[in-house]
Amino acid sequence: MTLSLSVDEALATTRAVRRRLDFDRPVDEVLLQECLELALQAPTGSLRQDWHFVVSTDPEQCQAVGAIYQEIWLGRIDDNYLAKAAAAETDPTARADWLRMMDSARYLAENFPRAPAIFVPCIEGRLDGAPAGLQALRWGSVIQAAWSFCLAARNRGLGTCWTTVHLAREQEVAEILGIPYDDVQQVALLPVAHTIGTDFKPGRRKPFDDFVHMNGW
Ligand SMILES: Cc1cc2nc3c(=O)[nH]c(=O)nc-3n(C[C@H](O)[C@H](O)[C@H](O)COP(=O)(O)O)c2cc1C
Question: Given pLDDT bands bounded at 50, 70 and 90, which one contains residue 1?
Answer without folding.
Answer: confident
